[in-house]
Design goal:
- This protein has ten helices and twelve strands.
- The chain is of the alpha/beta class.
- The chain has one domain (3-300): TIM Barrel, CATH 3.20.20.
- Strands 1, 2, 3, 4, 5, 6, 7, 8, 9 and 12 form a ten-stranded parallel β-sheet that branches. Strands 10-11 form a two-stranded antiparallel ribbon.
- Mean pLDDT is 90; it is low at 312-317.
Length: 317
């Protein structure tokens, strides 16, 4: 979709917008189903990038200690626990600029992926920048989807990162798409960007070919020690509007309420689900940020008449 179309949708009266986005949602999805995803940091802290929102950056004093890659046994234990709690997708994140074929850390990640992929869940990883060779090997090992967010608009991107470019993000996404892995790609709002920047981000996402299969919408969790530590929370109606327009722009994508849900009321989350969100991260922690407890999410979904989406594996290599 073009920016002008997205902007016209976004500027409608709120009830008109979410009524229309709900109709689009029901054309493509079961309205009562929500996918639950579990996210595990398999390598925390010490990242060389200077993303202004990230507590794992080595450029800032945030109190997050650099840790080594988790052992296969620890990752498998976490994955089995997530499966037992109803996760349909298990996501693993590593605080690296990227990985390269032939390195010890990449070989260890491939071993972890092979084992986790045998547990019957979709497998998603986010490892930073990769190229065509790494993408094909991850796909062969059993990765269903690769997460690589574009974060914001191309114009605002240099305001939040200087150690890599927006084009670097697009290059990794192109390698993922060429390998046949699904792309999980979204952004973060509340970093000081304008509403126009958010819509430009959606314009970029909606013009991917193929489009992303899942779109995480993160609300900034201001982390002490980062340049964005004092940002104010996103207005709930701005978030709902963005969820609704995302559903228009990417009708076949899972729209995931990601970071920041601890700052949202139950009513606010309900509006997001109505407007088109149909996936959440669950568990007490998202990498380094807090997340609602699993039992709190289960209770909310039950009260809204929503239930966990039946487990659906991605297509084979």
């Amino acid at each position: 979709m073009k920016f002008e179309e997205l902007s016209a949708l976004y500027r409608q009266p709120l009830f008109d917008l979410i009524s229309q986005s709900r109709a689009v949602h029901l054309q493509h999805w079961r309205g009562e189903e929500v996918q639950r995803c579990s996210l595990l940091s398999i390598k925390t802290g010490g990242c060389s990038e200077d993303c202004a929102y990230c507590a794992q950056s080595a450029h800032y004093s945030t109190g997050v200690e650099r840790e080594e890659l988790l052992s296969l046994e620890n990752v498998l234990a976490a994955a089995r626990r997530a499966r037992s709690q109803g996760a349909g997708r298990f996501c693993m994140g590593a605080a690296w600029r990227g990985v390269r074929d032939g390195s010890e850390k990449f070989e260890r990640v491939l071993e972890i992926v092979r084992e986790v992929s045998q547990l019957g869940m979709e497998v998603c990883v986010t490892l930073g920048e990769i190229g065509p060779v790494e993408a094909c090997k991850l796909k062969a090992a059993g990765v269903t989807a690769y997460n690589h967010n574009i974060d914001t608009s191309p114009e605002f991107y240099p305001e939040i990162v200087s150690t890599h470019t927006f084009q670097n993000r697009l290059d990794t996404i192109a390698a993922v798409q060429a390998s046949g892995m699904s792309v999980c790609c979204g952004g973060i709002i509340g970093m000081g960007e304008s509403e126009a920047d958010r819509l430009r981000m959606l314009e970029v996402l909606s013009n991917f070919d193929p489009p992303p299969e899942s779109v995480p919408i993160n609300c900034l969790m201001p982390m002490p020690g980062t340049p964005l530590a004092n940002q104010t929370p996103v207005d709930i109606f701005e978030l709902v509007r963005l969820i609704a327009v995302t559903r228009f722009a990417l009708p076949k994508a899972r729209v995931r309420l990601a970071a920041g849900r601890t700052k949202l009321s139950r009513e606010g989350q309900a509006l997001c689900f109505f407007a088109g969100a149909n996936s959440i991260f669950y568990g007490n922690k998202l990498l380094t940020a807090k997340n609602p407890a699993a039992d709190v999410d289960v209770a909310l979904l039950r009260e809204l008449g929503l239930h966990v989406e039946a487990n659906q594996r991605g297509t084979a290599c």
